[in-house]
Amino acid sequence: QRHLRLLLKQYVGKPFDEGMSNRMTWQEARFGLAWLNEHVTFFWPKTQLPSIEYLLDMARAQVVLNGIKGLIIDPWNRVSHRRSAHMLETDYIGQCLTGFAHFAQEQQVHVWVVAHPTKVFKGENGKLPLQAYARYLAQNGVPITAVVTEMKFDVTAATPKLTFRPVRALTEAE
Asked: What is the DSSP track for the chain?
């Protein structure tokens, strides 16, 4: 949802959510969403953190099915990283970057990897921030489920408002 709103804002060139500055119109929002639906595909496994191999296999399929020209892996810390105990982290990252470069050249696709800095600390009232909580769940074997989400404009709002409603879990085929 957050990525979609930010991409819509970038494409249209105006803020999406309500506020004081000039907001995108309904027509601009619909036009931008139609462009995004044609050019952007999100995919993530429903029950586990994906391996790099899994993501590249899925991206290869997207190249064939949808002709993608760019792959954004975001965030890097939500990818399953399996390296031997003897391999240094810098060597592992170098190996991954070499694999991404090979994939990009082989498939004629741009690859971006987004790495957010790690911040594991207690927030206000002793609660974990959302990213730290998601990492904690993943490290303790709690599956993360991806769902098909219905996107709908709230036509009663004065400015475009996009709402999201979970519809169902992704199937194995998806």
From this structure: -HHHHHHHHHHHTS--SSSSSPPPPHHHHHHHHHHHHHH------SSSPPBHHHHHHHHHHHHHHH---EEEE--GGGSB----TTS-HHHHHHHHHHHHHHHHHHHT-EEEE--PPP-----GGGPPPHHHHHHHHHHTT-----EEEEEEE-TTSSS--EEEEEEEEPPTT-
User: To the nearest 10°, the Cα dihedral for 94, 98, 103, 104?
Assistant: 100
Decide: pTM greater than 0.90: no
pLDDT tens digits along 49-94: 888 998 999 999 999 988 888 888 887 888 888 888 888 887 888 8
